[in-house]
Amino acid sequence: MSKKQTLNPNSISTLAPGCWVWDRGxxxxxxxxxxxxxxxxxxxxxxxxxxxxxxxxxxxQVKERLPNCRxxxxxxxxxxxxxxxxxEGTYQPKKRAEPNTxxxxxxxxxxxxxxxxxxxxxxxxxxxxxxxHFGNKQLEAIGGQDVIAYYNQRLDTDAAISTxxxxxxxxxxxxxxxxxxxxxxxxxxxxxxxQNPNNVRDRLLSSDEAARLFAxxxxxxxxxxxxxxxxxxxxxRLGEALxxxxxxxxxxxxxxxxxxxxxxxxxxxxxxDVLQGELIRWQPRTSGSQWLFPARYDASKPMxxxxxxxxxxxGEAQVSNFKPHDLRHNFTSQLQAAGVSDSTIMxxxxxxxxxxxxxxxxxxxxxxxxxxxxxxxxxLKPSDNIVRLEDSPQTRxxxxx
Length: 401
Fold this sequence. Notes:
Elements: E1 2-4, H1 9-13, E2 20-23, E3 26-30, E4 37-46, E5 59-66, H2 72-88, H3 102-111, H4 116-134, H5 144-155, H6 161-181, H7 207-218, H8 224-234, H9 238-242, E6 249-250, E7 255-258, E8 267-270, H10 273-282, H11 307-317, H12 326-337, H13 342-349, H14 354-359, H15 365-373, H16 393-399
Parallel strand pairs: 1-2
Antiparallel strand pairs: 2-3, 3-4, 4-5, 6-7, 7-8
Helix pairs in contact: 3-4, 5-6, 7-8, 7-11, 8-10, 8-12
C-alpha cells in the first residue's frame, strides 16, 4: 500500500510492514519484518535510443532503489543529482547486474584458451554436461559438495572414468579463471580426489597383424595408405599427422618437422626411405593442396576425421580392437626393443617425461619370455649334503603304482 503524505519520523514509524510512503519523488518502504526499511526515488528519464537532433526522446518514469541511503536528506540529494544529469544530457540508466552463472561466464572463460582443440573440447563439455547440471545456480553458491555430487552423478552413467575426469579438469580450469577475476575466492574443485581410470592400453601389433595391415593398405588408393605409413613409421599423434603440410617434409634433411605438438613445442622426426617413397607416390593425388591430407570436399582445409577409412583398413586386414593411437605405442615399444636410449626416443616421439614414455611403451609377450629365458640357470656342484630327488625313498614310494 502506498501513501502520499509528508515524510517525517512519525509517518515512517507508523507504517505497517510492507507499506510505502511517498513525498515529492522520495519514498520509503517498511520491510515485511517490520524492522527498518529502504529509501526510493522516482523521476522521469529519457528512454535510451538514437534520435534525431530536433526530436526530444520520449520519457518514462523510473523508480530507483537506494539501499545505502539512511535518511530523507540523502535520498533527496540523489534525486537532485539524477535530475541534474538528465537536464545536462549526461544521464546514464542504471543497468541491472546480471547474476554470475556458469552459462554467463563461459564465453569469457573460453576466450582465455589459445588452443582451438582445447576450446572445442571445453565448449562441448560445458554445453552438454556441466551447464545443464548446474543450471542458473550462481558461481558464488557452487561449493565442493556440489562438484562432488556432479562427479558422482556422472560416474553413475555409462561415461568412462577418464571422460568424467576430463570434465572435472575443465571445471577446475573454469573456476581458476573465476577466482582470477575476483568473483569467488576459493576454487571448489581443488582438492577433490578423482578415481584412477586405469586406461593404459598395451595393444601391440604382432608380426602377422602388421603384415596384414600393410597388405590391406596397399589396396587403398585414397588417404588410408599414406596415413597408415606415416603413423606406423613415425609414431606421431593422429592430430599431428593430419596437421602436416608439404612444407614440413624436408627430404633433403630426411626429416619431418612438426611445428606445434600437444605439448606446445615442435620437434623433428626422422623420415625413413620407405615413408618418403609413399609420400612421393601420394603427393600428386592431393590436388596441389598445402596439406598432406586435405579435406575431401575442400582441399584448402586439413582432414578432420579418418574413422570410416580406419575401420575399412582394419576390417580388410581382419585386425580387431586396434586404434590409430596404438601405432604410437607400437612405434615406441619397437624403439625400446631395439635398444634405443630413452632420451632419443623422447626426442622423436615428443614425450615430455619418462613417466609418459613408459606409459606409451610396452614389451611384447614374446620379448618378456625371451628375457626371462635368457637369465642364467644356477648349476649345483656335487656334494654329500645334497640328496637327489630321484634316488630318495619317498620318490621310489611315490613312483609305485
